[in-house]
């Protein structure tokens, strides 16, 4: 009986040592190798941050990849990014460590909103081949709560010689309605505000399924007071007859 009890004790000690050796990585040791099959996450060696141009205006490239293991807080980080999983959703969407995300206001919560302002000589409220860009148009990006007209955020800009504008919006506005609008044309031959294309909504959040920080708004425009004589031929080409 004594030999049998001794044998059981030795067997218990051996099993305990094997278990401790396998799980020691939890308390700071190296983790056991994990197999992920044939999944290729495709992380690039360089990350391009268009919001931080280099000395010559080129996009900044951030070197580096994921750390070889968990950091002090248990998260895998790339400098300047929330985590290496941002935008990927992990494998099956189950590996995002949101509680450990590092937020950098200038990068993670900054959006670049781009669009174009044009003149519609045909008064049909959509671009044609004889439409032309409008420069020096004041463009306003404003946000407000859904149940209130009080502005919570506002930024303004101007269109360039090509009718293009670019606005930098800071902060996540998931709980707000944000719109771009124009109110006054600097072109005396194209003064009338369009009914349908004088404002457009934009989403300034990444919480509703839109990834990335670039936002491209629909064109906004003004109309000529009197339709251009060329418009009939232009509309005929488009199949709009009898207008």
Topology:
Layout lengths: L1 H22 L22 E8 L5 E5 L41 H4 L1 E11 L11 E2 L4 E8 L5 E8 L5 E7 L5 E6 L10 E2 L5 E4 L11 E3 L3 E4 L7 H7 L6
Parallel strand pairs: 3-11, 3-12
Antiparallel strand pairs: 1-2, 3-4, 3-7, 5-6, 5-8, 8-10, 9-12
How would you characterize the overall build of this protein?
It contains three helices and twelve strands; from the N terminus they run H-E-E-H-E-E-E-E-E-E-E-E-E-E-H. It has helices at 2-23, 105-108, 231-237; strands at 46-53, 59-63, 110-120, 132-133, 138-145, 151-158, 164-170, 176-181, 192-193, 199-202, 214-216, 220-223. 14% of the residues lie in helices and 28% in strands. With 243 residues, it is an alpha+beta fold. Strands 3, 4, 7, 9, 11 and 12 form a six-stranded mixed beta sheet that branches. The protein has a domain at 108-237: Sandwich (Immunoglobulin-like).
């Amino acid at each position: 009986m004594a030999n049998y009890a001794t044998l059981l004790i030795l067997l218990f000690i051996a099993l305990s040592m094997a278990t401790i050796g396998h799980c020691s990585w939890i308390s700071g040791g190296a983790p056991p190798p994990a197999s992920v099959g044939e999944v290729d996450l495709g992380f690039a060696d360089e990350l391009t941050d268009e919001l931080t141009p280099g000395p010559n205006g080129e996009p900044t490239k951030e070197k580096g990849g994921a750390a070889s293991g968990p950091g002090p807080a248990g998260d895998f980080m790339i400098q300047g990014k929330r985590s290496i999983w941002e935008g990927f959703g992990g494998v099956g969407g189950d590996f995002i460590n949101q509680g450990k995300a590092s937020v950098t206001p200038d990068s993670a919560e900054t959006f670049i909103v781009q669009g174009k302002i044009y003149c519609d000589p045909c008064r049909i409220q959509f671009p044609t081949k004889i439409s032309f860009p409008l420069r020096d148009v004041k463009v306003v990006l404003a946000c407000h709560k859904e149940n209130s007209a009080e502005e919570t955020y506002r930024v303004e800009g101007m269109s360039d010689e090509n009718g293009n504008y670019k606005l930098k919006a800071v902060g996540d506005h998931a709980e707000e309605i944000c719109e771009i609008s124009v109110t006054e044309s600097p072109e005396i031959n194209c003064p009338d505000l369009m009914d349908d294309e004088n404002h457009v909504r934009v989403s300034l959040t990444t919480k509703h399924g839109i990834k990335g920080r670039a936002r491209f708004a629909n064109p906004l425009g003004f109309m000529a007071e009197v339709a251009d004589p060329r418009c009939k031929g232009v509309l005929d080409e488009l199949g709009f007859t009898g207008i």
